[in-house]
Amino acid sequence: MINSESYLMAEEALVEFVQKMNFDGDVPDIDTETKMFSWISTNLTRTDFSDFSEAQTEWENVKDLGLISFEENIGFYEAITGREEELENLYVINVPISVGTTSNEDCLNSFNSCVDYFVGLHAYNMGLLADDYNNHNISSQTFTQRQASAQVVYLGNLQGCADSFNNCNQ
């Protein structure tokens, strides 16, 4: 799945959206779609979106591409039910954030612990989301909307780990 064109396109759109947000606040401020758009509206001048409509359009594109990836890789989501540890290992291999080198072992250990925590939390949440879909509790559209929102939170948390590392290293 992680090498499929549809997944790579969906991830690229998501990462670009998050980068345009320029979010540096508290992740609970954006942990739902409604809160995220409220934050974008309030902080539009801090973002790289030309206007609120552009943010909405790009978010719809993120969800549309996520749905395509989901539908093309449905077997992956069916297979991860009850396998959160394996999913966590997959996320560890593909952490989308990195930091520079340091001789300060405490900073590095703190960063690694932070990343490990949020990788585990994200894997657990994605496992629950897949379970909801596989148990027919939610539609594929609801799955991809919740997955996209969860990924924004995940990326925000990982950025927080990197920011803490950089502050520690100064």
What features would you describe in this structure?
- The protein is mainly alpha-helical.
- It has one domain.
- 72% of the residues lie in helices and 0% in strands.
- The chain contains seven helices and no strands.
- The chain has helices at 5-21, 33-42, 52-72, 74-79, 84-93, 105-134, 140-168.
- Helix 3 (52-72) crosses helix 7.
- It is globular and about 50 Å long.
- The chain starts with a helix and ends with a helix.
- The model has no long low-confidence stretch (mean pLDDT 89).
What tags apply to this protein structure?
170 residues; mainly alpha
Brief overview:
By secondary structure, this protein is mainly α. The chain contains seven helices and no strands.
Task: Give the topology, please.
Elements: H1 5-21, H2 33-42, H3 52-72, H4 74-79, H5 84-93, H6 105-134, H7 140-168
Helix pairs in contact: 1-3, 3-7, 5-6, 6-7
Fraction in beta strands: under 5%
Query: Count the helices. How many?
Result: 7
Question: What percentage of residues falls in helices of 4 or more residues?
Answer: over 70%
Secondary-structure element series: HHHHHHH
Distance between the termini: 39 Å
Structural class: mainly alpha
Radius of gyration based on Cα positions: 16 Å
How many β strands by DSSP? Answer: 0
Q: What are the segments in which pLDDT stays under 50 over at least 5 consecutive residues? A: none
**Structural domain count:** 1
How would the global form be characterised? globular
Q: What is the makeup of the main sheet?
A: none
Q: Mean of the pLDDT scores?
A: 89
